[in-house]
Amino acid sequence: SAILLYIFNLEEYSWSIVIVLVVWCWLPYIKLLLNRENEN
Description:
Elements: H1 2-9, H2 12-39
């Protein structure tokens, strides 16, 4: 919860950085899902 409070206290531009990091981390998983759909 402390991490969430820290993120909320960041300036608005930092949110874009957080979103980019989250998307970047999810990219491999999204690619796997897309590959599964293409195989079917």
